[in-house]
Amino acid sequence: MAGKEGNELQYLNHYYEKEGSQLVVLYGQKNIGMTELVREFSYEKPVSYYKARPCSEREQRYLWGNELNSQGATLVSYPSYQDLFFALITKRTRKRVIVIEEFQNIVKQSRDFMESLIQFVHNQWNNQSVMVILSSTSIGWIESSMVQKIGEAAYEISGFIKMKGQSFFDMVRCFPDNTRQEQVEMYAILGGFPGLWDHFEKGLSVKENICRHILRRNSYLHEEALHLVADELRETGVYHSILAALASGRQKLNDLYLHTGFSRAKISVYLKNLMELEIVEKVYSYDTAGRENAQKGVYRIQNHFVHFYFRYLYPHMSHLETMTPEEFYEAYIAQDFGNFVTFYFVQVCREYLDYLNARGKLPFVYTKTGEWVGKVGNIDIVAQDEEENTIICLCCWENWEMPYEDYEWLMFCSRKARLDADYIYLFSLSRFEEKLVQEAAVNSHLELIDLDSF
Question: What is the pTM of this model?
Answer without folding.
Answer: 0.91
